[in-house]
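TASK: fixed-backbone design
INPUT:
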């Protein structure tokens, strides 16, 4: 899965929205501990096109990261791949 990115909307008074967003990201980050052969690709540090969506350059990087994560899920024990987030 690809983890939802940060959100860049709302003001400081939208703490509830930011907290919900953070809670979802944390659930995604730890889901691999509950599901076998599952991994999560991080998106937190990439640039946004709008308030929540990654820009096209970031999407390209995340696509490569997702492909590498899948490769590691399939072949990781043979090639010593590190797990995702």
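OUTPUT:
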């Amino acid at each position: 899965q690809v983890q939802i990115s940060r959100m860049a909307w709302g003001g400081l008074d939208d703490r509830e929205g930011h907290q919900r967003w953070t809670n979802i990201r944390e659930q995604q980050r730890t889901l691999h501990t509950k599901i076998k052969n599952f991994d999560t690709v991080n998106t937190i540090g990439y640039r946004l096109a709008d308030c929540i969506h990654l820009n096209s350059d970031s999407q390209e990087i995340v696509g490569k990261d997702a492909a590498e994560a899948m490769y590691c899920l399939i072949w990781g024990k043979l090639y010593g791949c590190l797990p995702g987030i």
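COMMENT: Residues 56-79 form the longest helix (24 residues).
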